[in-house]
Specification:
The chain is α/β, with parallel strands linked by helices. It contains twelve helices and nine strands. It has helices spanning about 1-20, 25, 40-45, 65-70, 100-110, 120-125, 125-135, 155-170, 185-195, 215-225, 245-260, 270; strands at about 75, 85-90, 115, 135-140, 175-180, 200, 205, 230-235, 265.
Length: about 280
């Protein structure tokens, strides 16, 4: 029987060359020929199909620029080309710095966006209430401030939902805006955020105030880079030993200078034409 099968294979190959120029064209073989011998008769009628040769078992993770391009409706880092600027403040609330920032914003009648860390929200709910009461917008900045890029989607989800629940109990709404700590996030997390109605917002102007730099450097970092539709990153909270004196001292001059240049200060929902809540 095995001799008959082999003779049939030879005949098929000869017919293929005469009619089509190749054995594969006539015999219906896969693109790559496979020299597989089998001792099961079923295999003669139903050959084994090989996996495509170019299947990728793992893909290189997308960087932030690629994620912003692919998910441009969900992942923002600047606004439209208009004479408006959004000042944003991360890592609130912090009794060392947040009240002083709020005092300056109140003095200049500037509304901003604050990204809150959940465990601090639980610790200082009165400060969160003040931010909300004075007309600023609150966004979600995780519960424990982890590096999300190395965390799973489930861990990301838990951090966001825990902070959302804590914030909504104080301000009465679930924030739509989300900013990952350090601005870092992976594709699975972006997909989850998109599916669940969040907008991720990073920045295109970085004050670098987290380094503890002085007012002159904070001012230069912002004024040299700010333009139409800019989203500016400051901090109004920090870790042990943080010093945001540079931001507190530079902020009045930054506001005055940008106003002199014709800019209007707005919240992120105003700049991006989004609701502040989900």
């Amino acid at each position: 029987m095995f001799r008959i099968i082999k003779l049939m294979g030879v005949a098929c190959g000869i017919a293929a060359v005469l009619l089509h120029g190749s054995p594969a064209a006539a015999c219906g073989a896969p693109r790559q020929a496979a020299a597989v011998e089998t001792f099961q008769m079923a295999a003669v009628a139903e050959p084994v199909q090989e996996a495509p040769e170019s299947v990728e078992t793992s893909a290189k993770p997308k960087n932030l620029a690629e994620l912003r391009r692919q998910y441009s409706e969900t992942f923002k880092f600047r606004g439209p080309n208009v004479k408006k600027i959004a000042l944003t403040f991360d890592d609130v609330p912090d009794p060392r710095f947040t009240p002083r920032i709020l005092d300056i914003l109140h003095r200049y009648d500037v509304k901003s966006t604050f990204f809150a860390v959940g465990h601090r929200v639980k610790k200082y709910p009165d400060l969160v209430q003040r931010i909300h009461r004075e007309g600023h917008v609150l966004g979600n900045h995780s519960f424990t401030h982890p590096q999300f890029r190395s965390r799973s989607v489930k861990q990301f989800q838990q951090e966001i939902l825990r902070t959302e629940k804590t914030l909504s109990g104080i301000i009465g709404y679930r924030p739509k805006l989300l900013r990952p700590p350090y601005g870092e996030i992976n594709e699975g997390q972006v997909k989850w955020a998109k599916k669940n109605g969040y907008t991720i917002v990073n920045w295109n102007v970085d004050s670098l105030d987290w380094k503890g730099i002085d007012r002159t450097k904070v001012k230069a970092n912002v004024l040299n880079a700010a333009g139409p539709g800019s989203i500016v990153l400051f901090h109004a909270g920090g870790g042990t030993g943080s010093d945001l004196t540079g931001t507190i001292e530079a902020l009045p001059e930054i506001i005055e200078t940008l106003r002199d240049r014709g800019y209007q200060f707005v919240t992120l929902p105003e700049l991006l034409n989004l609701p502040k809540y989900k």
